[in-house]
DNA sequence: AGTAGATAGTTCAAGCTTAAAATTTCAAGC
DNA sequence: GCTTGAAATTTTAAGCTTGAACTATCTACT
């Protein structure tokens, strides 16, 4: 009748349950945001992410840096930037002294579009996380902060 | 010098920050799991999800129910099940009395494969969420539980 | 100069994902 | 029996995503 037998197994199960719950919540919110972007702005989450990264760097970013910052593959960014460029929202600019690299930058149109979308986006998130007080948000954020066995670099 | 002016704006910003953090953590864990499944079992997360759902229902599920349970589109499930069937891990079974629907079920091979993968999967999650105590897990889980302005049905 | 290796980016094949259209079958009402 | 609409599934077009192969350029060393 050793009372402490139950614990060890419980921990990994408890973590698994947490993971599944996080996954569910994240996917639900993500789906809602994707839907909103599609309907309201005929756009997508990946496009929004790229534009957000570029918005913070007025000077522009190299494809390189962009893919590192978004943590997606190189080839992935190529496609998204291609389509954004087709729509005139970003532009590729040659770099002096290195013909391998290109700088990607928001156009004026791109900045306008992003500003509009970002405001809407914040509102959607606010609505989706309606039940969360500032304290909860802060608290969960803290717990989450040091979560995934930090694989090294990261930028907020 | 009204001291309470800062609050209202902060809440939506705080929620936004929480959302971005959740997104980052989720993606990081997801990427790690995907990588593991690919390298160790030459498989993918969507395949794992489908097999997990079928594992819980020994009798099998209709395409219909499968896509509802996983919260992905109908057509999506078609493709994943196609590929799983090619590999002999699931089978489609005609339903008596309704020629529109088909039942999808794990094969014996499928059950074996899933049992192995599920054990590994739990271990990976356990390792990835290393910093999380049972109490933290429980706590975050609680906070998350009622999170996304519940859009209706859901099954753990 | 010449070459070896690193770096930046694109292309490719495969799979995932969605929304919308199309197909097939079923159920009900006339 | 016919038809009309609902239900289950697949197909399609477009985009996202990855890892791997490929191209072009640059850097450094000899």
Automatic annotation (TrEMBL), chains A, B:
Domain HTH marR-type: 15-149
InterPro entries documented for this protein: HTH_MarR-typ (IPR000835), Tscrpt_reg_MarR-type_CS (IPR023187), WH-like_DNA-bd_sf (IPR036388), WH_DNA-bd_sf (IPR036390)
Keywords: DNA-binding, Transcription, Transcription regulation
Amino-acid biosynthesis among keywords: no
Record field: transmembrane: none
PROSITE patterns hit by this protein: HTH_MARR_1, HTH_MARR_2
Pfam family, one: MarR
Keyword Repressor annotated: no
Name of protein: MarR family transcriptional regulator
Organism for this UniProt entry: Billgrantia bachuensis
Lineage: Bacteria, Pseudomonadati, Pseudomonadota, Gammaproteobacteria, Oceanospirillales
């Amino acid at each position: 009748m050793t009372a402490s037998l139950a614990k060890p197994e419980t921990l990994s199960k408890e973590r698994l349950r947490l993971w599944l719950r996080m996954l569910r919540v994240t996917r639900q919110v993500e789906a809602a945001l994707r839907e909103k972007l599609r309907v309201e702005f005929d756009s997508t989450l990946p496009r929004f992410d790229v534009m957000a990264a570029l918005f913070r760097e007025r000077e522009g970013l190299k494809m390189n840096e962009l893919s590192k910052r978004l943590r997606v593959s190189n080839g992935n960014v190529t496609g998204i930037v291609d389509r954004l460029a087709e729509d005139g929202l970003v532009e590729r600019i040659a770099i002096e002294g290195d013909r391998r690299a290109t700088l990607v930058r928001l156009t004026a149109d791109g900045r306008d579009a992003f500003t509009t979308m970002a405001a809407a986006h914040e509102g959607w998130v606010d609505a989706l996380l309606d039940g969360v007080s500032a304290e909860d948000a802060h608290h969960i954020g803290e717990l989450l902060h040091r979560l995934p066995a930090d694989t090294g670099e990261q930028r907020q």
